[in-house]
Amino acid sequence: MTEMDGRSDLAYRLIRRAIAEGDFEPGSRLVEQRIGEMFELSRTPVREALRALAADGLVTIERNRGAMVATMSETDIRDQYELRARLESLAAERAATRMDADAIATLDAAIAEFDEGIALMSNGSADAALRRITAANNAFHRAVVEGAQHRRLSVLLEHAVDIPLVYQVFRHQTEAERQRSNLFHRMVRDAIAAGEPQRAGALMAEHILQGRDSLLQLRAQPGRETETHAS
């Protein structure tokens, strides 16, 4: 995402969340005036936010058609998750040789927050729980990437991780599947803390590819094709 002022950044975050949570469906038009009215923003920050989202791949902007929510093919999903698995596997390997105790504590906090989200989900607060789970998941993976202390790798992963796709996976997972996802977080954390780079990298790759498989299974269900967003 390019540098933006406060209002444009707010518009970016609001529109991105709306795409992630399915309020704006793939292929639907994003009309600046309507979005501005929805979020009580002027058209200028909305326009700048849409351009930033287009740079991220979440939105397409075409002449005479304007902005639309991007869609993603099965091949796109496979390609993206393969790239992400390789990059995050490398990040986990590097993190296993570079993370200190404070950074490990950040992983622990994210894992605990993920557990809280799962518990909240079982109490029926679905929207709040999904946001909490997704935020905790993002915090865990971000901490691993930061722990790798590899600036170029961090920049590459900004464009390889699709938050809307992750959100859709968590939305349709069972509690057991969410528990399994956080179990992988724990195993990756333990491998990093033990200074085992190969094990940490292998576990991270398997974790990412299981997310890919869950998403592809979701797409295969009747009536679910329109729920897949692009990055």
Automatic annotation (TrEMBL):
Keyword entries, A-Z: DNA-binding, Transcription, Transcription regulation
Entry keyword Transcription regulation: yes
GO MF annotations in UniProt: DNA binding; DNA-binding transcription factor activity
InterPro entries: GntR_C, TF_FadR/GntR_C, Tscrpt_reg_HTH_GntR, WH-like_DNA-bd_sf, WH_DNA-bd_sf
Coiled-coil positions: none
TM ranges: none
Protein name: GntR family transcriptional regulator
Organism for this UniProt entry: Mycobacterium conspicuum
Species lineage: Bacteria, Bacillati, Actinomycetota, Actinomycetes, Mycobacteriales
